[in-house]
Specification:
Length: 376
């Protein structure tokens, strides 16, 4: 009997860290779905996104829900250590869960590219136009340099989570880039208790990292423009990632009692938190997947999002709307429609969210596509 293919994953943060959101969930769900077929090990830092030190034993292998994980302190995040880990684990495949990470993509990639192992890079939406528009010059230089010095090995494979992201990779790294497309994996759907919805009432939730890319400011401006709608509320959850951007948002929040910042939600509490609301809103500048979008759908929550994600034609599906960020009136009109939904109309949308999630998110095909990422 053949032994399992050994896969070494590099990621900046991993559970029990949780404030990094989507990329962390992407890796956890991937490993959970495939760990019976592949032998996964994870190399990560011993801190959370905000620098909080995790309550873990650092710099030695530990077990997290059946997964071998090593949480490296800052001084251990170096090439010598990465080579020692590779040789200890006798790895077949190396998977990098980022493009721009210095310590968990660039350093290990340069250290390990001399070995006979397939190296897989998951950009996680970092090559999308919306993402590249933030600090564009720095990223443009990085892509130009990395194309020549880093990601030119014949053993390099790219993991795109959609055909759109595959096109973004080719645009940045050339038409000959070897790409495998596999949608991110998500947890199973959560049955939702009936939630009361009256016409003239709309409880919105924003759950994401608080950074410019997520475009919370746009959502706040929408609420401001609908100032006559007293039954409209917005609760905000997520770690504060960019203080300057958050300061702009906070100025609006403090002026409107219908808007509240609720802090950070732990992963195990996300579904229950989402189910306290009618609609999920995310006017993001770019998502290659959008785990919080998926979590909302899995919880039976209709969504109102930008068109900068793979989730399109939502009105036709009856599960919400994907709207143009250049047309604020579209957003205002749709929120008014959502405000006026009755209990009966709303419950129909909830059931359609479950059906949509079953068809597009929780399927055997998504698991099979993920499996193929690691196979020759």
């Amino acid at each position: 009997m053949n032994s399992k293919t050994k896969i070494l994953i590099f990621i900046d943060w991993f559970y029990p860290a949780y404030k990094a959101g989507g990329p962390l969930k992407s890796v956890f769900n991937l490993v959970q779905a495939l760990k019976k077929e592949f032998d996964f090990s994870i190399v990560t830092s011993n801190k959370d996104l905000d620098g909080e030190v995790l309550e873990v034993v650092p710099n030695e292998w530990t077990n997290y829900e059946g997964i071998d994980v090593i949480y490296l302190t800052k001084e251990k995040q170096k090439r010598k250590v990465y080579c020692a880990i590779f040789e200890e684990k006798k790895v077949d495949v190396i998977y990098y869960n980022s493009l721009f990470s210095k310590n968990f993509t660039l350093k290990p990639y340069r250290a390990l590219k001399r070995y006979d192992a397939t190296q897989i890079i998951a950009p996680r939406g970092m090559l999308g136009s919306g993402a590249l528009a933030i600090k564009p010059l720095k990223k443009k230089v990085f892509i130009k340099v990395s194309k020549r010095l880093f990601f030119s090995s014949k053993n390099t494979v790219w993991h795109a989570t959609s055909e759109q992201e595959a096109a973004e990779i080719r645009l940045a790294y050339g038409k000959n880039a070897k790409i495998k497309v596999a949608q991110n994996l998500s947890s199973i759907k959560v049955d939702r208790n009936p939630f009361q919805k009256k016409s003239g009432e709309l409880k919105l939730v924003f759950l994401s990292r608080l950074a410019e890319k997520k475009n919370l400011l746009f959502a706040l401006e929408l609420i401001q423009e609908l100032k006559e709608e007293k039954g409209l509320t917005l609760d905000i959850y997520g770690p504060i990632e960019e203080q300057t951007y958050w300061k702009k948002c906070k100025g609006i929040i403090e002026q409107d009692e219908r808007i509240r910042y609720m802090g950070v939600v732990k992963p195990q509490d996300i579904a229950a938190t989402l189910q306290q609301y009618h609609f999920y809103i995310l006017p993001t500048l770019h998502e290659n997947y959008g785990h919080s979008i998926v979590e909302a759908l899995l919880a039976g929550l209709p969504i109102v999002i930008s068109q900068a994600t793979p989730w399109r034609n939502l009105k036709k599906e009856g599960v919400g709307a994907d709207l143009d960020l250049k047309d604020k009136n579209q957003w205002l009109e749709y929120l008014k429609e959502a405000l006026n939904l009755t209990q009966e109309n709303y419950e129909q949308m909830v059931q359609k969210c479950y059906a949509y999630a079953e068809e597009h998110i929780v399927s055997d095909k998504t698991i099979e596509d993920a499996r193929k990422v690691f196979l020759d």
